[in-house]
Amino acid sequence: MTQTNQPDNHFPVVIIGGGMVGASLALALQTSLAKHSNSPPMPVAIIEPYPANQLSQQPSYDARSTALSLGSQLLLEQLAVWQSLAQHATAIKHIHVSDQGRFGFTRMSADEYQLDAFGYVVANQQLGQSLFKVIQQYPAIELLSPATASQVKPLPTGYAIEVQQGEKKSWLTTDLLVIADGGRSPLITQLGINVQCTDYHQTAIIANVTTSKPNQGQAFERFTEQGPMALLPLAKNHSALIWSIYQDQAQQWLEATDSHFLESLQKHFGYRLGRFTKIGQRFYYPLSLKYSSEQIRPGLVVLGNAAHALHPVAGQGFNLALRDTLQLANLLKDSWEQHGAINDYAILRRYLALQESDQIITMLGSDWLVKAFSNQHTGLSVVRNIGLVGLDLLSEAKTIFTKQAMGVGFNQTSI
């Protein structure tokens, strides 16, 4: 990786955003060519507002943790990222899903499927460090940092990007512009791309918690009267909490003391991990389902949360984005090897055709979970419980559910 304040004039690919998705794409393009091709490396520029040595400031690498599906773990292994990340990851060996106040629940264990784990939990900051550790090995990746893309203009083939670094402005051009700068992308608005949004009227509370009992690799999905709650296993007695609270009740949780918060958490979660003894700093995020009406244009691709931002209830946001990213990288690699135009609109249409069903099913599944388990109507609660009991008893249904959760329900992309 080259870090510079003076961008070259032209790159085949320019990625706006060096978060988890943008960094993964840059790395996938280099890895796929290095493994399977005698073609020269594909020069890639990443435009990133935050300095590379201050990853904790990057919103993608904040205090949150990510549940990597088994499919995502395998993809990161192919990118040589997992080798340094594995020591910081916690295996998800068991999944427990329940509905507060109801008898129904379902449970799954990895050993039932002859697996070491369903997936792994990693801190976003650690994932970012591991990605950039590998990126530094590829001189074809140029990191423009700290820098912003103040405006973009379509060209007959490709795009021109105005890059601002401090007081300096310069222009560069690209065959393929990739927008991966998150769910509040200013460039999406600038380009006139409509974003469809479903407001869940919920706020996510994110924090690390300590319990009196070790988690033993258990991940919990708990549907409470306050909103869906997930506890992801971290080391020993620590877990990552993601609790989706209704917005009209969010203020009381913002103002609650740690002791009051833990008391309420105990009431809604129960005692499967013993007592909650400590909570770290709490972070809050508004929740919605966002879907870009255009993910591709000639010479343009929208990826990650800029393309589709999901509710965290099923933990599939980054896993879906990574599947998109690897699919795109493979198609671009094939065109590069054949000396074709990587911004050929036919390639981009093929990418979207290959990923569209995955995107739709994953988004609809996440949306259904939120709406079905957020509705406290008595009749629907009974149906949910029957569903959870049935899922626990029917091995075939559990297998289908588990494959989707592991990110292997679709054709697995590989580098």
From TrEMBL:
<keyword id="KW-0274">FAD</keyword>
<keyword id="KW-1133">Transmembrane helix</keyword>
<keyword id="KW-0812">Transmembrane</keyword>
<dbReference type="InterPro" id="IPR051205">
    <property type="entry name" value="UbiH/COQ6_monooxygenase"/>
</dbReference>
<comment type="similarity">
    <text>Belongs to the UbiH/COQ6 family.</text>
</comment>
<dbReference type="InterPro" id="IPR010971">
    <property type="entry name" value="UbiH/COQ6"/>
</dbReference>
<keyword id="KW-0560">Oxidoreductase</keyword>
<keyword id="KW-0472">Membrane</keyword>
<dbReference type="InterPro" id="IPR002938">
    <property type="entry name" value="FAD-bd"/>
</dbReference>
<dbReference type="GO" id="GO:0006744">
    <property type="term" value="P:ubiquinone biosynthetic process"/>
</dbReference>
<dbReference type="GO" id="GO:0071949">
    <property type="term" value="F:FAD binding"/>
</dbReference>
<dbReference type="InterPro" id="IPR036188">
    <property type="entry name" value="FAD/NAD-bd_sf"/>
</dbReference>
<dbReference type="Pfam" id="PF01494">
    <property type="entry name" value="FAD_binding_3"/>
</dbReference>
<keyword id="KW-0503">Monooxygenase</keyword>
<dbReference type="InterPro" id="IPR011295">
    <property type="entry name" value="UbiH"/>
</dbReference>
<keyword id="KW-0285">Flavoprotein</keyword>
<dbReference type="GO" id="GO:0008681">
    <property type="term" value="F:2-octaprenyl-6-methoxyphenol hydroxylase activity"/>
</dbReference>
<feature type="domain" description="FAD-binding">
    <location>
        <begin position="12"/>
        <end position="333"/>
    </location>
</feature>
<protein>
    <submittedName>
        <fullName>2-octaprenyl-6-methoxyphenyl hydroxylase</fullName>
        <ecNumber>1.14.13.-</ecNumber>
    </submittedName>
</protein>
<comment type="pathway">
    <text>Cofactor biosynthesis; ubiquinone biosynthesis.</text>
</comment>
<feature type="transmembrane region" description="Helical">
    <location>
        <begin position="12"/>
        <end position="29"/>
    </location>
</feature>
